[in-house]
Amino acid sequence: MAGIRAEKMEANRARLISAARKAFAEKGYAAASMDELTAEAGLTRGALYHNFGDKRGLLAAVVHQIDTEMATEARKQAAKAENEWDAMLTEGIAYIEMALEPEVQRIVLLDGPAFLGDPSQWPSQNACLEETRKAIESLIVNGIVKPVDAEAAARLLAGAALNAASWIAASNAPEQTLPKAIEAFSTLAAGLLADKDQDAGR
């Protein structure tokens, strides 16, 4: 019985997240109606409160899902790179490029920070930060990156990627803003390269 109950609860969570994701993308978090999205999921407000506490808790779950998907896609792109440095740079650029997606723009980059606070405190962002820190540590050991503090470098790189994506999301001309953001991000990142690798990073 406990297993069946857990499966039902997980199914209800998934239905609510799916309905909320659609509503938040189409109307924005503030304008999305809890009654409408719970009806869309075929559930009640009570189910929403039971699973997420409140509407903000539901937004956090939706942001976590999308942000995690973004990180997964960015890692897939990075896996195609020829070396460690290019992999880390590609991952950051891939994240920035996803800022062109309307769902990402509205939910993760605009409503997320507005209603959930500092993205650096989100579990999904912390997971990305840890991956970046490990990558930088490896690059330092291999003499590709200068011997800087790995956590500090990871936080600055992650922050630069997130802010670039946020800039694109808020821009009146996202398609024109994207190449500017990528060029600046790449140039900033190249400053971490050891002197002998500076040319390769350009």
Would you spell out the secondary-structure blueprint of this structure?
Elements: H1 2-27, H2 34-41, H3 45-52, H4 55-78, H5 84-97, H6 102-116, H7 123-141, H8 150-170, H9 174-190, H10 198-201
Helix pairs in contact: 1-2, 1-3, 1-4, 1-6, 3-4, 4-5, 4-6, 4-7, 5-8, 5-9, 6-8, 7-8, 8-9
Descriptive terms for the model:
elongated, single chain, mainly alpha, 202 residues, 10 helices
Verbal overview:
Keywords: DNA-binding, Transcription, Transcription regulation. Residues 33-52 bind DNA. This is AcrR family transcriptional regulator. InterPro entries: Homeodomain-like_sf (IPR009057), HTH_TetR (IPR001647), Rv0078-like_C (IPR049484). Residues 10-70 form the HTH tetR-type domain. With 202 residues, this protein is an all-alpha fold. The chain contains ten helices and no strands. The protein has helices at 2-27, 34-41, 45-52, 55-78, 84-97, 102-116, 123-141, 150-170, 174-190, 198-201. The longest helix has 26 residues, at 2-27. The chain is elongated. The model has no long low-confidence stretch (mean pLDDT 90).
Average of pLDDT: 90
Q: What's the SSE pattern? A: HHHHHHHHHH
Categorize the overall geometry.
elongated
Range of strand content: under 5%
**DSSP summary: helix tally:** 10
Low-confidence stretches: none
Gyration radius from CA atoms, angstroms: 19 Å
Amino- and carboxy-terminal Cα gap: 60 Å
Helix vs. strand class:
mainly alpha
Please report the total strand number as a whole number.
Answer: 0
Question: How helix-rich are the residues, as a percent range?
Answer: over 70%
Described by strand count, sense and barrel closure, the largest sheet is:
none
